[in-house]
């Protein structure tokens, strides 16, 4: 049976969790950094240490915090992930967590679109596209293989821009005047093949997470299709899910 006291305690935990989540989102506590001691943190939030610990435990269960029995609570470091219902580029996700994104171009070429790409992007078969394949890293650690196919009819400026360490979303907006508004995104588990394992510095057959997307501009025009292969120990996907009424 739930009592009024129990309900009040649960509300306090939820509110403490919400405030800490917001602080993490805004970078108040940087990635890899140590949180203040429990006594000080509980005092600054105006809650008991038992309430604080329950809220911290929820954040740890979500992979946002790590706990050391001797040293306290730390913000998780080398994990990137989409905030719930927020579309960000790899570079934006990394910078939001205090990490330095890098990329190495593995392939860059103009070619005709395949039938499947043409259908996804709403263009004629064999229309010109830019294929871009990059190895993405965080603080020098390889994390993701990123392959994109971009409609050249809307992005001619990309032909002369070095995309080595640039955010593709930001470049599309700044150089081409195209703001990315939404993405149709799916995630599935897979096992790494020999090439992927070598590039990501993992064992052949190690688990990876594969994200596939079609990305749209403000006016609903599909502008690129992408495939991102992440090391499973370095990426987390989050989403808000709603039931229909």
Beta-strand percent range: 25-35%
User: In sequence order, what are the helices and strands, one letter per element?
Assistant: HHHEEEHEHEEHEHEEE
**Termini separation (Å)?**
28 Å
Which structural class should the secondary elements be placed in? alpha+beta
Overall pLDDT: 85
* Biggest sheet architecture: 6 strands, antiparallel
Spatial strand arrangement across the major sheet? 4-5-6-9-8-7
Point out poorly predicted stretches: 1-7
- Helix fraction? 25-40%
Shape: elongated
- Tally the helices: what do you get? 7
Q: Give me the count of strands.
A: 10
Task: Please render the helix and strand layout as text.
Blueprint: H1 4-25, H2 38-45, H3 49-61, E1 65-68, E2 72-75, E3 80-82, H4 90-96, E4 101-112, H5 115-121, E5 128-138, E6 141-151, H6 168-176, E7 180-191, H7 194-200, E8 207-217, E9 222-231, E10 235-237
Parallel strand pairs: 3-10
Antiparallel strand pairs: 1-2, 4-5, 5-6, 6-9, 7-8, 8-9
Helix pairs in contact: 1-3, 2-3
Structure overview:
The chain is 30% helix and 33% strand. With 245 residues, the protein is an alpha+beta fold. The strands form three sheets. It has a six-stranded antiparallel sheet with strand order 4-5-6-9-8-7. The chain has a two-stranded antiparallel ribbon with strand order 1-2. Strands 3-10 form a two-stranded parallel sheet. It starts with a helix and ends in an 8-residue tail after the last strand.
């Amino acid at each position: 049976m739930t009592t009024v006291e129990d309900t009040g305690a649960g509300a306090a935990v939820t509110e403490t969790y919400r405030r800490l989540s917001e602080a993490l989102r805004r970078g108040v506590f940087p990635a890899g950094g140590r949180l203040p001691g429990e006594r000080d943190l509980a005092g600054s939030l105006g809650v008991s240490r038992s309430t604080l610990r329950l809220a911290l435990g929820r954040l740890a269960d979500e992979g946002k915090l790590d706990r050391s029995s001797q040293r306290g609570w730390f913000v998780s470091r080398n994990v990137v992930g989409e905030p719930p219902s927020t579309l960000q580029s790899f570079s934006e996700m990394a910078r939001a967590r205090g990490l330095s994104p890098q990329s190495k171009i593995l392939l860059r070429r103009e070619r005709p679109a395949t039938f499947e790409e043409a259908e996804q992007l709403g263009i004629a078969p064999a229309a010109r596209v830019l294929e871009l394949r990059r190895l993405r890293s965080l603080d020098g650690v390889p994390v993701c293989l990123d392959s994109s196919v971009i409609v050249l009819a809307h992005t001619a400026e990309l032909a002369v821009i070095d995309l080595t360490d640039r955010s593709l979303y930001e470049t599309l907006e700044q150089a081409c005047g195209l703001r990315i508004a939404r993405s149709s995104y799916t995630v599935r588990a897979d096992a790494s093949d020999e090439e992927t394992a070598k590039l990501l510095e993992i064992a052949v057959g190690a688990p990876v997470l594969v994200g596939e997307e079609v990305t749209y501009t403000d006016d609903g025009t599909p502008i690129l299709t992408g495939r991102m292969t992440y090391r499973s120990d370095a990426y987390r996907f989050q989403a808000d899910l709603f039931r229909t009424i």
